[in-house]
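Input chain follows. Return structure tokens only.
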Amino acid sequence: MSNNSTKTCGLKPLALAVGAVAAGLSFQAPLAFSQASALEEVIVTANRREESLQSVAMAVSAFSEDMMRDQGIVDLKGITERTPGFTMGTFNPGQPQLYIRGIGSNEDGAGGDQSVIVFIDEVYIGRSAGMDIDLFDLERIEVLRGPQGTLFGKNVVGGAVNMITRKPTEETVMQVEATLGDYNARTLRGLLSGELSEGVYGKASFSTRRRDGYFESALNSIPEYTGGKVSDTHDINSDSARFGLRLTPSEDLEINLSAAYSTIDKLGQPDHFIEPPSAPGLSYTVSAALIPNYDKKIHTGLFDTAGYFESTAKSVMARVDWNINDDIMLTSISSFRNVDAENSDELGPGGASGASPLMNLYASVAPLGSQMLFGANFYTDESDTITQELRFTSTSDGPLQWVGGLYYMEEETHRIESIGVGIALQGIDLNLATGQPNQVVPGTPFTLLPYIPGSDDQLNKTTSMAIFGQFTYDITDKLSVTAGARYTSEEKEMDRKGTADGLALLGAAIVGNFDFETSEDWSELTKKVSLEYQQTEDVFWYATYSEGFKSGGYQGLAATEIAAATPFDPEFATLYEVGVKTEWMDNKIRLNASAFSTDYEDLQILQLLLPDSLAAAGVNTGVLITQNAADATVEGLELEFTAFPMENLTIQGSATWLDTAFDNFSIPAGYSAPANNTTPDRSGNELRNAPDFAYNLLVRYDWPLASGATLAAQVDWRHKDLVWQDPDNLEFSAVPEYDAGDFRLIYTTPSGNTQVSAWVTNFTDEDYYLHNYPTGGVGNATPAPPRMVGLTVFWRNN
């Protein structure tokens, strides 16, 4: 069902209201507070230099190590839930889909890129398979919203997640954290850091996480099922280690070396099926027939094999900071990263063989003559990435501050993906030559088209080079101007071989036959200009114009040689943003607000479409197509606040309003959407992962105890409106609106070095989803975890 209606609630009245409130913040309102904690200064490096968060002319959210521990944030999903405009999908267990302000990417082919980029210590992490990391041993995380085309470079059209790890310390630091919880959850983390010899400091840290799955198969309780026990899925099984060495040969020279290793080995991610408004697919029909009250049992599915996801990531990095003189610092950042991932999923009942107890169960309840699709999808994805950045930064105290440098990246990605779909008929043994049944045996599956897998072997080499610079000039002691530019040149060389799958016999394969080598290059100059006004010590205004550029590429699985060899175009972003950052009431309240409008050109959209040839054959499965939407517009408002309204009480949170729309975007000829009652014209439809309204709110109260210890109670609540997951705005494949909250009771010993936290996540036991997508006439939803209870103990030596 297309959603092209015009919204009656626009953003302009809200923008005026925010501006009016913020304008009044320069005055001290006559409110009285009892003793309370004061706001601490937050330092970020969003402009590649250390600055106060309250004086940076962009929308930035920052999370310290203590903040993440107190809120139980252990992965990127936790960050997205607490950052304005940040959303994350989970199509498979190890490849997060990150979206900021409605802009992100689902593309996972060797020749595609992400739109929201993760950086670890300023090193680019481009492949989505390498982004799913445990958040440990971090000094802070910064989330930069909007295009960052000048200093952060290629592909950062949606935004950037900048993770800053802890440097080895001069003082000896020891930390241990252990967690036990529901579903056999166990986490153990540790850190040891300190001086090895004069001017040499070392660090070693680790994290290991385990948890059983919470999504169960109903087959374990169906007497008619004759297969073996099926394991619960959506589990956690990861290990990570990080090592660091810091050398200070002189006051002007610091060298940081680091190495990291991580593994993930977990089961796959079967879905809970959601019924469309008409003509539900067979997977929903059978599930609803075999599982009583199926629609309300979102943590139960009908699967006999969960599949799996495995990945290994290894990286090394060397950073050199040299103060050449009193005015200039040279920074060199060199890195190498290898990510090796593997994923396997069964499609429909029967998997690759087409014969299984689950297929027999399907046939026992499906209508006579029903098409039962079965098959498998498997891929390996290995990438080697080398980056080198040379950067010069001014260090003087004069009115002109500047940064400039050179950047080089070379990435080779080898992805082999195999996929195939077979077709069985319920009760009918059809003779393809005559079109007549050989026999009719209701309740028995007969193979019409065997599973014949196709494969797409993609070897892509990306070479990217850039030169960049940015300066800030203080026109007066209150007014400054910033300007910057980056010129990026990028080439992609693709060597590709495809082998058609069995659906080619029906005239439209998921993967086609091809064998070719090709290349394409792109270049672009992206610019930034901002005006900054420090009205008072506590009120900072800014207006920013910023551009972003994401290079073109080659789509993943391709049905034809033309689709495989034809590159899609680059996408471009132009941001207009105004904002205010304030602290008032004697540093008891911090309120930051921003209003923005972003124009996107040639937005790259990965979509599942049904070829007309398969539809004519009555086969309800689709192919993936990457298409440049003509234009898209994103407008919005964001608020972030922290307040200490009374002694020992902390309130903090954020809110986002988004208004998004495609412009001049239609389904390509020869295809249709994977649902009935849709129109080819998608103009006016909303973007993926862009809720109209979302907020999070944390309330914490600390009780000082007579012993000198403290006890804190904390509630962390979040809300998100409905989120579309496809460009056709199909409601059955959206993530519905939800509210969820966590509760923590935190005891800190008098010495302050031990903390015990009892926690409940999703304490209302809300049923909601993390992701959804349309295929086979149903929504394929990933349920969020149910309520979980646990205990975490943290200790450090000082």
